[in-house]
Amino acid sequence: MRLVKNLSLLLVVLAVLVVTLLFSLENQQSVSLTFTGWSAPSLPVSFYVVVAFLLGLLLGPLWGVMIVRRNNKRPRK
């Protein structure tokens, strides 16, 4: 059963990597982002989307852990 789980995880990771690679290759148009007067360098739109996706992958679980820890500290009624 562990082998099936590991192979499934490997297939999902490979699928995400392939989709990300294809997305990056298809979206090479350069864009420059401006936010409150600060201007980012002109980079492909795929770069900004992939960075936003990766930040979500990192920050989402951290946010969840913070919520669980906060809920565990509350006194139960």
TrEMBL record:
UniProt signal peptide: none
Entries under InterPro entries matching the protein:
LapA_dom
What GO cellular component entries does it have?
Answer: plasma membrane
Q: Locate the Lipopolysaccharide assembly protein A domain: which residues?
A: 26-72
Protein name as annotated: DUF1049 domain-containing protein
The membrane spanning regions, by residue number, are 7-25, 45-68
Q: What keywords would UniProt list here?
A: Cell membrane, Membrane, Transmembrane, Transmembrane helix
Native source organism of the sequence: Pseudomonas grimontii
Q: Which domain of life is it from?
A: Bacteria
